[in-house]
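Per reviewer request, we include the raw input and output of the structure prediction for the construct analysed in the revised manuscript.
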Amino acid sequence: MKEKVIFTTALCLSAMTQMMAQNITGKVMNTNGEPLAFANVVLLNRTDSAFVKGAVSGEDGSFVIDSSCNGGIIKVTSVGYKTVCKDCEGENVGIIKMEEDSNMLGEVVVKSSQPKTILKHGGMTTIVAGSVLEKAGTMEHLLDRIPKVSAQNGSIEVFGRGEPVIYINGRQMRNRSELDRLQSDNIKSVEVITNPGARYAASTRAVIRITTKKILGDGFGFDASTTGEYDEKKNFGGFGQLNMNYRKNGLDLGHTPLEQSSTSHTIKTYSRRLILTRLGYRRVKTDK
């Protein structure tokens, strides 16, 4: 009987040890040794780069991912810094240092250009307007830089909550093309709600609320973009997209007639926009 009790106790201790080893810990800092808060730290599947689990660094730069490495890859993103990818080996990945991204921040780093993140009950709001996030480009690129959100290869996940319900200017998104028509420089703020209240359906585990800037003027406009991509075997590909919209007296109608998706890694996006209004037109060229 005593041997049976000892054996059972040993099994319990072994199971507890395995459970305690399920967390991946580390710290995110800049090259000056200062902690970086609100950095996205995600664990990706090595085979297909699919999202597994994620966490956001705290005020002291520390993070905890509720998962074991399983041979995966750690990806760290933070606004104004170059993305870092490293092999996940062991429970503690140590200090991850991030370098400033001169392409996003420009030659002079202006601290006021960093986005503001406001914490409140149930989630957080990131102010995009007037920050370096306006240069992100597509909505997928923008959302992937929002704390607690992973967006890549057409998939959007909120850390620990799964696929979110998305609202654009207070209206629930019904088609992915509604999101694809938006560009980061047209976004005012993005709110991520991880604990939706009674105002949402019981099955809703997470909500992303996107608020755009107020667009002035009536008329017809279109947005064309071309993206070049490459895969793990260094094969290049790409897709083109044309978004059209018509605005009249506050009514904004949009359509995406041509779109070809891809699952490889985006390396650069070029976009041109022509906006026609009653007062004339303006052409904007961006290189993201």
